[in-house]
Specification:
Structural class: alpha+beta
Distance between the termini: 46 Å
Oligomer: single chain
CATH architecture: 2-Layer Sandwich
Number of strands: 11
CATH superfamily: HIT-like
Number of domains: 1
Largest sheet: 9 strands, antiparallel
Shape: globular
Amino acid sequence: MPRDELTGADVVIVSSRQGRPNLPDAGCPFCPGGLEAPEGYDVRWFVNRWPPMPDDRCEIVLYTPVHDAQLWSLGVEGVRRVVDLWADRTVALGRRDDVAYVLVFENRGPEVGATIAHPHGQIYAFDHVPPAAAAELDEPCALCREPTNVVAERGGWRAWVPAAASWPYELRLAPSDHVADLPSLDDHGRDALAALLRDASRRLDALFDAPMPSMLWIHQRPTDGGRWPAAHLHVHLAPLLRAAGTPRFVAAGELGSGVYFNPVDPAEAAAQLRAATAPE
């Protein structure tokens, strides 16, 4: 993998993806009967046809057969099916000798590059521990501390706006107990994660009374066989909007400095999210 000689950043060159379609030619490929889902399903995964990495290490995860659903509209039971599939794929991919880290993530909305509206996410199985995940694996575990700006709690899981949030309504979700990865969650923990994900997605959609474009990624224990005692499973949820219809852009001053300038006070963001409700 190339590494920038000046910044040290890892870069994957994937010229093959330049030819991938921006939109499907006919119909939704993720709906039952479509290209990627010829049969009916509750949840489904398949290998990405346009992978940024080789050897079937990139997958698509379909959350529901309902094209116009939102994550929160699936109910706790529906979101739990997604959580179980994430955990199953973490185990399957993590067993491979060429996989050191399983990254579960989602891009929601065309504003963040999602070309298909059908509810779905992705999984990248890296052959190394990527820098953003590695940076959070130092001891002691920062996620074992009591957070401020808590928005919601469900069954031992908490969602809060970080005190130094980079995004105006950024949320972090983590269990109070030091659980290392998705496969390590018991039934109670999976139900709690499903309930809190549903709660968080409802609040974000209710905030400006419209589906919130957002990015979600899950950090968990690497699968390279190391001990990684500081690994504490958690979800990053980065909403794009800073006000109704107004995106929060990351521009040159931030990219050039590595310092982020958040226009919304995290405590106020947490208060607004606590007050946000949406119909069931």
